[in-house]
Amino acid sequence: MTLRLIAPVTLVLALAAACGSPAPPAPPAGGGKTVDASTAGTITGKVLFKGTPPTRETFKMGTDTVCLQNGGPNPQSDAILVAADGAIQNVFVYVKDGIDPAYTFDVPATPVTLDQKGCIYTPRVIGVRAGQPIEVVNSDATLHNVHALPKANQEFNHPQSKVAEKMTKVFTVPEVMVRFKCDVHGWMSAYVGVMANPYFAVTGADGSFEIKGLPPGTYTVEAWQEKLGTQSTKITIAEHQTQTTSFVFEPTVK
Predict the structure, then answer these.
(1) Containing structural domain, residue 79
(2) Quick one: which H or E segment has residue 233?
(3) Residue range 73-99: average pLDDT?
(4) Do 160 and 146 touch, CB atoms closer than 8 A?
(5) Residue 239 belongs to a domain
(6) Dist CA 232 CA 219 (whole Å)
(7) In what helix (H) or strand (E) does residue 19 lie, and over which residues does it extend?
(8) What pLDDT was estimated at residue 73?
């Protein structure tokens, strides 16, 4: 009897381990080297769109009265936000290559907030450090389902049914980008850039970005936009120098 019981229990434990595998390990801590602030430089710039911007999609929220009340009758997609002068908002700009792995960077304990308001993720694009908390908030009086779809980190899928309900999640592996969606409201999307270092930014409404505190060196800087793809450039920074660059996207939408 004992032998017959062991096999099922062992099978259940094995299946549980497979379904609820632990999160991937945190990235290496580095070699303990710190950036000399007196010699550090900055990268600034803008991200622009060349040509006629694509038409923004209008969401149909009539199936959920709360979404309709909070989001308005004809809310438009914020997947591509282009200003009159061509500036693109919500582009994730980051140093892709060139950081000495000997550097160690403290991970902030303060969480970055991703809100669900008017049945829209706000902000659309955020950046966090690997190991830094992400606080996901439901500001709507309706059911949302927070479904993260990483490739390197651990996937999760959790409902939030109450106003002001919060959950805290942590990604431990650098990954650009992690998509968030809502399985209840198919139009809802957000993207999270998970970084091993603090050298990233998200463009504002004027298309501008600033990446500060870089040690002198040559870097590959990449700009990511969810519909337009990526562009990259090489930038060399001397001691205490500010370099300015720009990225220009063409109207080729995926």
Answers:
(1) 44-209
(2) strand 229-237
(3) 93
(4) yes
(5) no
(6) 10
(7) helix 2-19
(8) 66
Q: Is the peptide bond before 123 cis (omega within 30 degrees of 0)?
A: yes
How many domains, in total, are found in the chain? 1
Q: How far is 53 from 177, CA to CA, in rounded Å?
A: 23
pLDDT of residue 78: 92
Q: Is residue 241 included in any domain, yes or no?
A: no
Close Cβ partners of 134 (under 8 Å, ≥ 6 residues apart):
111, 112, 113, 114, 126, 128, 168, 169, 170, 171, 192
How many residues are recorded in the chain?
254
pLDDT digits (tens, 9 = 90+) for 175-221: 999 999 999 999 999 999 999 999 999 999 999 999 999 999 999 99
What φ, ψ does residue 142 adopt, rounded to 5°? -150, 165
| Residue 238 main-chain phi, psi, to 5 deg | -90, 180
Contact 145, 184 (CB under 8 A): yes
Residue 165 lies in a domain: yes
State whether residue 150 is helix, strand or coil.
coil
Q: Residue 124: inside a domain, yes or no?
A: yes
**How many other CB atoms sit within 10 Å of the CB of residue 198?**
19
| Contacts of range 115-119, beta carbons closer than 8 Å, 24 or more positions apart | 115/139, 116/140, 116/144, 116/146, 116/160, 116/182, 116/188, 117/70, 118/67, 118/70, 118/71, 118/72, 118/75, 119/61, 119/64, 119/66, 119/67, 119/70, 119/71, 119/144, 119/182, 119/185, 119/187, 119/188
